[in-house]
Amino acid sequence: MKPEQPVSVKQQPSSATGRRGFLGVAAAGLAGILIAPGVRLIEIAQAAPAPGSAATGASSKVRWGMLIDSGKCASGCTDCVTACNTENGLSGGVLPTDSQWIRKIEIKEVRTGKTQSLPMMCQHCAEPPCVDVCPTGASFKRADGIVLVDKHICIGCRYCVMACPYKARSFVHEPLQNQKTDVPRGMGTVEGCTMCVHKVDQGEMPACVSACASAGHAAILFGDLNDPASEISKRIASYPSRQIREDLNLNTGVRYSGI
User: Disulfide check for 258: which of 53, 70, 75, 233 has CB 3.0–4.6 Å away?
Assistant: First the structure.
């Protein structure tokens, strides 16, 4: 029998390259259609300050984080959730498939039966699993520790959703209407808590933090974890706090006290 001839090396790459090129163009075209016009998340990632703003660009000298006091977090209170939905243009559960960037959970101590209510969101890990598994680089961490998704290169594979141990990412199933300019979203992409990066870059507090303070609970403290003089660093140094799933060694930017 005559031996089988090898496939020409010159033929296959051109076909594969063509397919990749087509998929790349298609993805870029879809992103351009689905994202709020005139907004690029990568520009938010670079954190360019607005003219006249006192805000500076994202810097590795800063690491933004939150400290949540479970003793002050009231069971049944959802002010932080409502504020997040309002600020970021989420339906708040009106659409069954809409995203939820922050949710209240109830935890129970097995030995004592003690229950506590806690807000759960993206933990903004120093070593984020979502970034590790993303095949396109859409999931990324800013220099100041905030973890984001670039919707223009997210292909909706949802690897990051499966990798996140906090169930903090959502997939956008439905077409979106009346999007907010500061919060670009897109059908067919993944999203999650951004720590209200558009507010932080202007020197403001995340919506959940402001809402909790306005309600009189002050259960969420926001600040620079790298600054020993910041209130959040002083609190962490003075009182015991924990990270959710400490065993994973992800060095989360969100800490909890009283659990």
Answer: 70
Cα torsion 45, 47, 48, 52 to 10°: value is 150
Q: Which of 142, 96, 120 is nearest to 208 (CA)?
A: 120
What backbone torsions phi and psi does residue 237 show, to the nearest 5 degrees?
A: -75, -25
CB atoms within 10 A of CB 116: 16
Give the global pTM. 0.77
Tokens of 117: 């209510």
Of the given ranges (77-91, 97-111, 112-126), which has the lowest mean pLDDT?
97-111
Encoded tokens for 12: 């296959």
Hey, what domains does the chain have and what are their CATH numbers? 61-257 (3.30.70.20)
Strands 147-149, 169-171: pairing is: unpaired
Cα dihedral angle (65, 68, 69, 71), rounded to 10 degrees?
180
Cβ–Cβ < 8 Å for 73, 116:
yes
